[in-house]
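Collaborator request log, item 7. Partner lab (contact: R.S.) asked for a structural prediction of S-adenosylmethionine:tRNA ribosyltransferase-isomerase to inform their binding assays.
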Amino acid sequence: MKIRDFSFDLPDELIAQYPPEERGTSNLMVLDPRTGTVSHKNMQDFPDLIDENTLVVFNNSKVRKARLFGFSEETGGKVEFFLLEKISGKAWKAMVSKAKRQKVGKKYNFPGSLNGRITEEGGTNIRTVEFDRDIDDDYLDEFAHIPLPPYIKREDELMDSSRYQSVFSEITGSVAAPTASLHFTEGLIHRIKATGADVAYVTLHVGLGTFAPVRTENLLDHEMHKEEFYVSDETAEKVESAVKKGKKILAVGTTSIRTLESAWQNGELKRGTQYTDLFIYPGYKFKIVNQIFTNFHTPESTLLVLVSAFAGKEFIERAYKEAVEKKYRFFSYGDAMFIKENR
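Returned to partner:
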């Protein structure tokens, strides 16, 4: 299985650079794998497509302002530190720009009278940076930037601080948004509950594992990075009850899918903090997720591979081709797809 088999042609003008003017108004493509049919709706139609026999599971992780710019004490050059993971009170793992120049021992000045130095190299562009004091989310909210993905060809703006978060984001820890959640408003969630459907929340902090490119020609040689997730007692009880009653488990976003599929063990949803490096590709047998709400994903990505595993590679290829023809908006700020149960 080759990663190039999951490629497609996408005109640049279809890559959404901004969210829709109003949240919850995006186009919605509806796929029915059992009949092979595709229909075209709007997000406002979504609550009408589900019923009381459904549990909708969201990821409530909140995006951290993770892009921090420092200036080299030696040259004065500007360097971007994309903060990936807090290692200790003062030390962070980060992706750095101009990586070949960022060596162990180099020192930097950051906004807010913060200083730091590189203490370790790890991987092509990964460094450990130790600051001279503990930095928290309050500091990052003031001085750092929203980590918009590289295919959004602009600097982050004030509105991104709210629009690149879901309305139910709660627990800070992601370095990229679980973007399927961005489509939902409080009004849409209220209408979902009004159908008799129930909702539940898991927390998976989006890291390199979700968005790291596949660099191996053979798909199965790709290794996922571990990502942290958390399942509460309340959510576990809701999921276990829904499965026992034969209800549909509708996962919003690939992060929710991977969380549920990783935590489901021996007929139960394992509680607490856990880690997953689950890679879902064609041939994978889904344990409990039987409906998916998702965005349109980048070519040759693990996310596109995942939805292809669920709905069928040929069906997804046809749907994406139709999306291009009908000028759907793609990627993080783009339109949405609802895939009904495949069995």
